[in-house]
Write a structure and sequence with these properties.
By secondary structure, the chain is mainly α. Helices cover 42% and strands 0% of the residues. It folds into two domains: 89 residues, no CATH class; 151 residues, no CATH class.
Length: 267
């Protein structure tokens, strides 16, 4: 008995590791709910908890009480969230990254987009908005065209995630109106605007300045084309543009002016 007590006294206290499964540290009911939402490890969970005040609202079956218990667990093991939080701070003042380096949090990646069409009817293999937009871009073989179109898809996806906290496939008409205004003068300036810089540079920003009327018209017509194609592939149900109903009468969604590829800001 004395030996057993001494062994317990000297035993190492288990410490949660970032790669551990949620079922190892959280109560079974909560772990099942998280796994059903695609959150399998503590690492997956840390991507949500430090980022948003009401981070749990889009997780079916997880209420305030369960969320508070999870937060209490992380508070007791602060080292688990210190690194993700430090990574977020290190990106300040910009949470925007170029297309090829973009890693979209699951809650805004469009895998559960509000306006997604039924999966069984979709003719794309895309599981999320990034993959769907990439499929659209692959249609355009000319490098210059692909770069120009990527720029507009990149800007909208970044704006939706960072400024609205929404997936591309969750954007509503009100969001489309807000984005149209945003293109005139992207703000906050430190996050969105900067001088020309390599896409690998920390100084890279999506815009060199606010877009002219012609450049806004071009940007919005490109995005209209993307949404029309996504509707045709039955990936999304509708174009969020407030002008989309007028398309049948010969007007372009998102804008009433013709496109122009010139003066379109940062690459």
């Amino acid at each position: 008995m004395a030996a057993a007590i001494e062994h317990l006294r000297n035993a190492t206290v288990p410490v949660p590791l970032i790669g551990d499964g949620v079922d190892l540290w959280l109560e079974p009911r909560v772990a099942v709910v998280l796994r059903n939402a695609g959150i399998k490890t503590l690492a997956d969970l840390t991507l949500r908890v430090p980022r948003r005040r009401r981070w749990w609202v889009d997780i079916d079956g997880l209420g305030v009480a369960g969320a508070r218990r999870i937060e209490a667990f992380f508070a007791a093991h602060a080292d688990l969230t210190d690194r993700p939080r430090a990574l977020l701070v290190a990106q300040a003042p910009s949470d925007v990254l170029p297309w090829e380096r973009l890693v979209v949090p699951q809650e805004v990646d469009g895998s559960k987009g509000l306006h997604r069409a039924p999966r069984a009817s979709c003719v794309l293999r895309a599981n999320n908005d990034y993959e769907a937009a990439r499929a659209w871009l692959s249609l355009h073989e000319a490098p210059a065209t692909q770069r120009a179109y990527r720029k507009e898809a990149e800007r909208l996806i970044l704006w939706a995630i960072v400024e609205r906290g929404l997936a591309l496939s969750s954007l509503a008409t009100e969001d489309a109106v807000a984005y149209r205004a945003f293109l005139r003068q992207p703000s906050p300036r430190a996050r969105w605007i900067g001088p020309a810089a390599p896409r690998t540079s920390a100084e890279w920003r999506p815009f060199a300045g606010g877009l002219s009327t012609r450049s806004r018209a071009y940007a919005l017509s490109v995005l209209s084309s993307m949404f029309r194609w996504l509707i045709e592939q039955r990936y999304v149900l509708a174009n969020p543009s407030p002008a989309s109903r007028s398309a049948a009468r010969g007007r372009r969604p998102w804008t009433r002016r013709g496109p122009s590829p010139r003066g379109n800001g940062s690459s």
